[in-house]
Amino acid sequence: MKTIFKPTPTVLTIAGFDPYGGAGIQIDSKTIHALGGYAYTVTTALTAQNSQGVYALEPVSPEMLRLQLTTLLDDVKVDAVKIGMLANTALIEVVVDVLKKYALSNIVLDPVMISSSGKELLEEEAVDVMVQRLFPLCRLITPNLMETNALLGTQYKGEMKESIVMANGLFKLGADAVLLKGGHGIEKEAVDCLVEPSGVTCISTPRVNTSHTHGTGCMLSSAIATYLAQTFTLKSSVKGAKNFLYERLQASKDLNLSYQSNNHDKKEPIF
């Protein structure tokens, strides 16, 4: 009997480099491989960060970003794309051009704008370019509450009843489907709402009391992309990714790193 060759599902992550290993292309790679995919990684920026936050970033040149992408994509096929930190307008323009040139699909955008420690990760003038040129190419965008408010110029609190209004605002900006994440919301449980033109699906998990929260958004978006690469529906991909994140947060206490000080305000890696 002839053996049928089934390629490994592949996910391209376009994001920043985290020397702490808990966010960006590092956690994307860990997540993609943990879920049975293979990760291709393209770096948009070097960062200096640790458990206390992001201290500095240095974007790669547009030429180097384009060369990373085209060299890779001239050689391999990609089943899904996760996009994280893009840093500036020039890098967004490169990504848009490449996505179109290679007709890439299953694109999940985590619109990284400001770190949880308050560091600006996307130049202010680049936001409109991201919205106008990149949003329409994406199958899903996954903003947290702070990013949603920044994009819409609002002050929503993260209540479930606000989901439709927030999503409609993002639809008007060109989004095709939106996952409104509940990690920063005020609901008792962590409720993420997938809003598509066809309806709303909300997935709830208990909140996990842990300091291991560094890179949660990166993990969730790369997990969704990995499920999409495996031909799951968008709804199933979001549910699978949400459950994966919850399970990893529950097990995160098993990761016990040594630190130079006893500062208790750490945001540690998940795995």
Notes on the protein architecture:
With 271 residues, this protein is α/β, with parallel strands linked by helices. The chain has a single domain (10-251), classed as UDP-N-acetylmuramoyl-L-alanine:D-glutamate ligase (3-Layer(aba) Sandwich). 35% of the residues lie in helices and 20% in strands. The protein has helices spanning 24-34, 62-73, 89-101, 127-134, 145-152, 163-172, 216-229, 234-251; strands spanning 10-17, 38-50, 53-59, 80-83, 107-109, 140-141, 178-180, 190-196, 199-205. Strands 3-2-1-4-5-6 form a six-stranded mixed sheet. It has a three-stranded antiparallel sheet with strand order 7-8-9, sandwiched between helices. A hairpin with a 2-residue loop joins strand 8 and strand 9 (199-205). It is globular and about 50 Å long. The N and C termini lie far apart (41 Å). The mean pLDDT is 93.
First and last CA, distance: 41 Å
CATH architecture: 3-Layer(aba) Sandwich
Number of domain modules: 1
Judged by helices, strands and strand pairing, the structural class is alpha/beta
**pLDDT averaged residue by residue:** 93
Radius of gyration: 18 Å
Percent in strands: 15-25%
Q: Could you give the order of the helices and strands?
A: EHEEHEHEHEHHEEEHH
The unreliable regions are none
State the helicity in percent bands: 25-40%
Largest sheet: 6 strands, mixed
What is the class in the CATH system?
A: Alpha Beta
With strands numbered from the N-terminus, the spatial order across the biggest sheet is 3-2-1-4-5-6
The dominant shape is globular
In CATH, what is the homologous superfamily?
Ribokinase
Number of helices: 8
Per the CATH scheme, the topology name is UDP-N-acetylmuramoyl-L-alanine:D-glutamate ligase
- Number of E-state strands: 9
